Amino acid sequence: MALGGVIMSSKTDKIISMIALRQERHNDFTCHCYNNRMASLCKTPRFTVDEETHTVWCDWCGNRVEAFDAVMALTNYSDRVVKTLQDAHEEALRVFKLARNYKPWRRAMKNMESSIRQGMLPRCPHCDEPFRLEEIEYYHNERFYKGVQK
After folding, report:
1. Which pLDDT value is given to residue 148?
2. I want to staple 46 with a disulfide (CB 3.0 to 4.6 A). Which of 17, 24, 59, 102 is the partner?
3. What is the pLDDT of residue 3?
């Protein structure tokens, strides 16, 4: 019968630790989960540290891990996380700069200029009559105009 990480033997009524069973079972095996570069990129390092025996166990395969290898796996993983965050931050800055410099009226002016070069005239959006650009006599401040309309 299992009770929160321990096993009770019904014949001897002795409590056997799960850690002791794992150590006996995997004592001769060492973890190779983080030796392969592709496997180490896919797996998040997960370790269990036994403070009594000063050993480290892999949570993926259950085998023993050298302490130095565990520290290197955690360091490499944290370096990858930091690099990913830096790349995401740089991408966000790049998109922000593009959005900040985006001026939609420039595209409209470019389209209007190419149409005028082809001999076409702009037309009034209200009365649908064509007009020459020289006929425009004054401009409104957009912020002021929007405030007056509200």
Report:
1. 63
2. 59
3. 41
Quote the CA–CA distance of 51 and 32 in Å, as a whole number.
22
Cα(131)–Cα(124) distance, integer angstroms: 7
Q: Which of 73, 118, 114, 100 is nearest to 65 (CA)?
A: 73
pLDDT single digits (tens) 51-103 = 888 889 888 888 888 888 888 888 888 998 999 999 999 999 999 999 888 88
Which value, to the nearest 10 degrees, does the dihedral of the CA atoms of residues 69, 74, 80, 86 take?
-140
6 neighbors 18 (Cβ within 8 angstroms): yes
**Cα-based distances in Å from 24 to 55, 58, 110, 116, 145:** 13, 15, 77, 86, 82
- Specify which residues 48 forms β-bridges with: 57
Helices (H), 11-138: 18-26, 37-42, 67-101, 104-117
Q: What angle do CA 45, 38, 76 make, to 5 degrees?
A: 45
What integer pLDDT is reported at residue 40 of this predicted model?
Answer: 58
> How far apart, in whole angstroms, are the C-alpha atoms of residue 62 and residue 23?
9
CA dihedral 59, 65, 69, 71 (to 10 degrees): 60
DSSP type of residue 44: P
